[in-house]
Amino acid sequence: MEDDTLDAAFSALADPARRAIIARLSRSSATVNELAEPFAITKQAVSKHIQVLEQAGLITRTRDGQRRPCHLDPAALEALTGWIDTYRLEAERQYRRLDGVLSTLKDQHSKERS
Amino acid sequence: MEDDTLDAAFSALADPARRAIIARLSRSSATVNELAEPFAITKQAVSKHIQVLEQAGLITRTRDGQRRPCHLDPAALEALTGWIDTYRLEAERQYRRLDGVLSTLKDQHSKERS
DNA sequence: TCGTTGATCAACCATTTGGTTGATTACATC
DNA sequence: GATGTAATCAACCAAATGGTTGATCAACGA
């Protein structure tokens, strides 16, 4: 994944309104007006949030007459967890390796004393 | 997870320098100077990035004399993938459900024509 | 064709952010 | 104690961000 893609995706998720939109869209597609309803901000502001999410590739939009419903893209979310997991798993692997070294040292110490 | 925590964590990841720091720390702990070395920015800027990561709970810091090494926290990363997966899995579930409905309709259509 | 509704565009404002330089703190070593 | 080094603090700057209001575009329904 390119830097720009990850920049856009993570900063898109770094806002509670946009995360709420993600949560809502995970249940079903929805239009801007439907998404705006639960928020205390203007429809224009929601429209901006949606553009950010779309630009980040997290959602897609279709045409349905006058409406332009938004759909969550699970594959984009999976790409993000994939990135995070790469480093989480590596870190966990390193910690286990360190634990192994420490217990080896401890064993050697016990052996020396016995 | 609270909104503020997620805000801090995701916006911490929304910067290529900070992601590079995460990647570096997944292999082993490192000090500010070590982390700053591969970058074309000042040590102070790196120090700021590290504070952002620490504030977000993604890394921890310890004292080793004059040095203050940074350590990646895998559990914090796991919390993020957990959040994302909640909605990714729900979206995938909904898409499968929709596919089921569509194929049922298609079957009924075939039956009617036969 | 005309009014209504979904949605975006445009301009503007306050705040945040990523970077800089220069000064300062804290620890280690001579 | 004096010097050097790891790291942060402080003040500042340019650019990006999240929000507003007002105007505009595009499609539907009478």
The main pleated sheet of chain A reads as: 2 strands, antiparallel
Q: What's the CATH class of the domain at 3-80 in chain A, please?
A: Mainly Alpha
Briefly note the structural class of the backbone of chain A.
Answer: mainly alpha
Q: At the third CATH level, what is the topology name of the domain at 3-80 in chain A?
A: Arc Repressor Mutant, subunit A
Question: What is the strand content of chain A?
Answer: 5-15%
Protein name (chains A, B): Transcriptional regulator
GO molecular function (chains A, B): DNA-binding transcription factor activity
Organism (chains A, B): Arthrobacter agilis
Domain HTH arsR-type (chains A, B): 1-92
Quick synopsis:
Chain A has helices spanning 3-13, 16-27, 32-36, 43-55, 74-113, and strands at residues 59-61, 70-72.
3D architecture notes:
The structure is a homodimer of 114-residue chains. The first copy, chain A, has 114 residues and is mostly helical. Chain A has a domain of 78 residues: Arc Repressor Mutant, subunit A (Orthogonal Bundle). Helix content of chain A is 71%, strand content 5%. The first copy, chain A, has a two-stranded antiparallel ribbon. In chain A, β1 and β2 form a beta hairpin. In chain A, α1 packs antiparallel against α4. The longest helix of chain A has 40 residues. Chain A is elongated and about 75 Å long. The model of chain A has no long low-confidence stretch (mean pLDDT 91). Chains A and B meet through α1, α2 and α5 of A and α1, α2 and α5 of B.
